[in-house]
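**User:** I keep going back and forth on a fold encoding question. It is easy to fool oneself when nobody else works the same problem. Could you pick a protein and write out its sequence and tokenised fold? Could you put it straight underneath, so I can go through it closely?

**Assistant:**
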Amino acid sequence: MIYEVLHPVVTPLATAIFRPEVVGTEHVPATGPVVLASNHLSFADSVVIPLTAPRQVAFLAKSDYFTGSGLKGWISREWFTGVGAIPVDRDDPRAAQRSLDLALAHLRSGGAFGIYPEGTRSRDGRLYRGRTGVAWLALQAGCPVVPVALTGTDRIQPVGARFPRRAKVRVEFGAPIPVEGRFDGVPLGRARRRLTDEVMAAILAMSGQEWAGEYNERQPELPA
């Protein structure tokens, strides 16, 4: 309900301010389960994707976004709650698995779910190797993965910045990557790795980022 109220108001306002270039929305299925897998450059990514996607997208969000104080904390909490984000404590592996289970339930109910395969945002602008949770979700739900490439969101709210800034942003939704029947007979671990690598290759081709070739280890948060 919050999404239906906020989206028609916030989207035109944000579009007028930031004027994002949005490409490929026709690739996002209008109905049915789908995973949107994106690179991750900024806190703003979790605002930009719901604003530009042609349908409501739920996603995992670190629990800190739901517990902040002051005006910024209230805005963050209301936005992430409104778009159906699922909170996850990244320091608790069991909580992370429970969150993936909730994400899978969302997909099985016919929803769209967004995820950052890198696990955490890139602080140097490179694209890091994807973790296989994205493939686990798609294979379990039997649904396609739409790769998403974001550029410029790191300039909206750079690491350590207190307030957002105007910046040129581009969002590209790529062609869906199907899973049905493609990995029959392939061991599950190998199927997850292959699908994840395919998704990351598609994101790399669209984003033009430098390939890091390694996992992005989470760094301590900088003070606001």
